[in-house]
Amino acid sequence: MARRDRGVRFFAWYRMVPLAFVLLLGAVSYLYSYAPSALLSYLYPLRYEEEIAASSARHTVDPMLVAAVIETESGWDAHAASSRGAQGLMQLMPETAQDMIDLGLVDADEYHADELDVPATNIEFGCAYLAYLIDYFNGSIDSAIAAYNAGLSHVNDWTEQDTVLHNAITFPETQAYLIRVNNAWDRYQELYGRDFSS
After folding, report:
1. How many Cβ atoms from other residues are within 10 Å of residue 186's Cβ?
2. Whole-structure pTM value
3. Alpha helices of the chain — where are they, by DSSP H?
4. Any idea what DSSP says for residue 198?
5. Any idea which residues carry the catalytic annotation?
């Protein structure tokens, strides 16, 4: 009788809740890792392909990285605006857009820094800025992604502190942002990398 009671207690409901949660989390992780492309393409849509292809080619940036930044920054909402004043698909500050013009990276006759809600304009400035950051950090994509979120000066400070950028980042938001963009970049390469025309 005592053995049976012990067996019943082991499988008591309060012990099953964490086990069920772990199993559910495992199932979700498995589905996320091996989900069919139809499900993943719903989670990672691709829009404005022509604009991304043209601007990413002009600025020699991976179009799938551009898509990952757009997905992470605005979720493909061309009219997204942050409380800090960042605008559009790639959540650019008007000052940053103007800097790209001043540096000669964006043609001011064709693109205007005050039209960041126009998808083609926003993507052009975003690609220029990503290319600028990648060049500034000597090809380090992770440093460029972190700087896109936190700014150049912070990433400069972090890279001086530790050779592994992720260990040096002091902003939890930027750590999460770096992970999210890289995960989205992997997904976009898997889903659209072969078919995307640039």
Report:
1. 14
2. 0.80
3. 2-10, 13-34, 37-43, 49-58, 63-74, 94-102, 119-136, 141-150, 152-161, 165-168, 172-192
4. -
5. 73
CATH number for the domain whose boundaries are 37-192: 1.10.530.10
Q: Within a 10 A sphere around the Cβ of 47, how many other Cβ atoms?
A: 13
Q: How far apart, in whole angstroms, are the C-alpha atoms of residue 65 and residue 119?
A: 16
Residue 146 is encoded by which pair of tokens? 């972190």
Return the DSSP state at 1.
-
Residues ≥6 apart with Cβ < 8 Å to 56: 62, 63, 66, 127, 198
In SS3 terms, 66-81 reads as HHHHHHHHHCCCCCCE
Contact (Cβ atoms closer than 8 angstroms) between residue 123 and residue 55: yes
> pLDDT tens-digit profile of 101-135?
999 999 999 999 999 999 999 999 999 999 999 99
